[in-house]
Structure formats: C-alpha cells, structure tokens
Amino acid sequence: MPVAKNEKKGFNKLLVISFDGFRWDYDHDVETPNLDYITKAGVKAKYITPPFVTMTSPSHFTTITGRWVEEHGVIHNMMFNPQTLKKFSFKETQNKTEWWDNGVLPLWITAQNQGRKTGSFHYPGGGANYSGQSVYRSLVESLSHPDSNETEWRENIDIVLKWFTEEDFDFVTLYYGEPDQVGHLKGPETEERRIIIRQIDRTIGYLINAIETHNLKDKLNVIITSDHGMTTIKKAPNVQEILLSKYINFKNLTKFDIVDYGGHGMILPKPGKEEELYQALKNAHPHLHVYKKEEFPVHLHYAKNDRILPIIVYADLGYNINGRIIIYVNKGDHGFDNINMDMKTIFRAFGPDFKKNYIAEPFDSIHIYPLMCKLLGVNPEPNNGSLAITQEMLLGTLDPSQPQPDHSEEITFMVLIAVGVVLSILVVIFIVYVPYTIIKRKKGPNQEVEKMNRTQPETNF
Ligand SMILES: [Zn+2]
C-alpha cells in the first residue's frame, strides 16, 4: 500500500520523545501493552548504546548533534568553571548558551536553516542559542518542575500534537524526566520503578490514540528513545566504598574537582601536583579507574576536549566516587562505562516511513542523528553517525530527491568505475566494430545503419 506523504513538502513530520534513564530492559518485568504494540506497528532495537559519559546532557546532545561528547563539548550534566570554582546543576544549565554552544549545531537549528519548523519541549539543550540562533519554539523545564505528573505528561502530548497540526511544525523533541528520577531515588530493581514504567506505557497509549485523533497517523514519524540506563548502587557493608580522601589530601593536592556525582569524576590538581595526585589514586581502589586526560581510552571519545580536567576517574558499575566524606544518597545511578548492559537504553520507532514488526540489532545512539536527517529531508552537518547503521529500519519510501547524507567520496568512486566500464565497452566495440563496419560497408550502407541502431542501447548505461 502506498504510504501517504506530506504532499506539500515531500517528507513526513518527526516527533522524538526521550524518557530519561529508560534502561533497555525495563519492559521485561512489567506489562507494557502499548510499547509492545509499537514493536508490532514499527521498529524496536534490541538496545542502543549511549556515548560515554552516560549522563543526561552529554548523551542527549549526542543524539541531537550526531557528535561524540568530546566533539560537541557538553561533557557533563553540570556546567563548571575551574577558575571561578563555580558549578551549575543540570537544570540551571538549560538556558546557559555558553555551556551548550561550542560550534556544533544541533538538528533543530540545522533543520530550521533548511526551512523546517522545529520545537523543543523540555529537551536538554533546547533552551540555548547556537551561533546566535534559537530554536523556533523552546519550552525549558522550571527548576521545580515535577517529573512524574501523568496529567501533565498527557497535556504535553496534546500541546506538541497541536504544534504539528495547527502550526505545521515539522520536527519536535519532547523530554520526560522519568524513569530517571525514580531510578535514582528508589533504585532500578524496585516496584516504584515498575509503577513508573506502567505510567510511561499508558502515556504512549495516550500518544497513539492522540495521533489518530489529530489525523497524523500517515504524516508523523515517532522515535522513542532515552539517554542511558540505570544500575543499583553498591554500598557498605556489602562492598568497600570508594572514598578518595582515604588516599589523597584534597587541600594539598587539588584546586577543583567534580566528584560525589555517581561513578564519574574529574580533578584539577594544584600546579605541580598532577603526578603526585595521579600516583596516589592510580591503584588506590580495585574498582576505581584513574587516567591522566591524555591517556584516557580513545575509543570512549570523551577526553579530547578543553573542558576535561587533567585527571579523570571512573568507577566500576555500581560504585559511587565519594570525595571527602560519604554524603551520597542515591539508590540508583548511571554515568558508568557504556559497555555495561545496565547503561544501555531503548530505541523504538513507528510511523509512515518505518518498517513494521522489525527488530533492529543494537547500535550506538550516535547513529540516530543521520536517521532523523533522512526522515526530515535535511542535509546533515558533519557528524560521527552513519545512516548505513539505521536505514535498514526504513521502508524506502522516502523521497529520493531529498538531500542525502554526504557520501560524496563513495559516489565519486562509483562514478569513476562506471565511466571506466563504459569507456572499456566503447573501446571494445570500436575495436570489434571498425573492422566489421569496413567489411560490412563493402556490402551496402543500409545494413550498416540498422546495425548501429541496434547496438546503440547496449552502450547506453
Ligand atoms: Zn538522564
């Protein structure tokens, strides 16, 4: 059956919803009829891998830019300044352009510059300006925003769908702070977490119905994803907790630090103290990894950024990095190495351009960006993703005339091969034909014309 298109524009609208901290397997121990319905009606990836560091702002910004964290520069949830010693919380950063705008354009801006109408509803980074441009419509969460009000969740869906129907928006990102909040406060293996997953599933059911009501079913693609998973924090007396002050004297060795923030931390040593600090921490705890910035594993695509402090520490799954005293209260956390299954997250998609009942193999979240560009017919910015990873989930109904991701090198190579083949064939024909023609000509010109005409299509690639 032909897929109904937005005839006017040649592409369908796109809604991206992020449920913060939705671990890849949260639907395994809860009834989720609406998520199951989406799997049948669309695409489900077995799981996806967020970038290192598995934190909210860095990961969301990778999704919306297609760039590794070290390239887009939003390297932590907190904005900080090691000179002034100031720190700003995740929510406080949301309007701070200086934290988000590091020369990499998020898709909202790129799409706007190519004629799309875009909006961000609470999505991290949506409130900042990029190269002086703001997202056409952006709602930013207030500092006291409640995370789990189901009525508000539905109202937000109504608002966003009206943006699509009444104001002809093309691309909107919608963010919810759950199940992250419950995961932190209660832990991922709790009834409270299962309750919030049921609430999310009901909300998705509400969305499916609302899409029908708004007559958007054949015009709107929907991606549901998240930024990281969640794991249960290991505490004494079950384990020996990591407490840095057992190994270093903060006052003597450090100028500035970001610790007590889950399993990841960074330290700026006092001048001349870097080696002493490094040596003191290097083998201090069996579950603590300590790196000089320049020796940090390259495959994590994290440390090559000016904002990264000289010493990076991260802990094995479930260990919090405590600084001077143990004040940490979370039952669950993320921020650990993205190789851990507990850090993996979800990807679902449905709509007119997606296959139905399709299970995709796991992939890195960085590949969502070129997929979104493809769906919106937008020329991507330079990025670290690859459409080849994600395009299998598409029906192939997208307008081939729309801008394609830049594969110009491949295309040039293929054109060269094609030209080579054509030239070779022409040479062969010439070699075979010229003597043949000379012989034929002796027999009469009319026959010759007929031959040429029949030969023509064979060389016409
Ligand atoms: Zn998060």
Automatic annotation (TrEMBL):
Alphabetized InterPro entries for the sequence: Alkaline_phosphatase_core_sf (IPR017850), Phosphodiest/P_Trfase (IPR002591)
Gene3D superfamilies linked to this entry: 3.30.1360.180, Alkaline Phosphatase, subunit A
Keyword Phosphoprotein: no
Entry's transmembrane regions: 411-434
Superkingdom field: Eukaryota
Keywords from the named record: Membrane, Transmembrane, Transmembrane helix
UniProt keyword Nucleotidyltransferase, yes or no: no
Protein name, entry field: Ectonucleotide pyrophosphatase/phosphodiesterase family member 7-like isoform X1
Organism: Geotrypetes seraphini
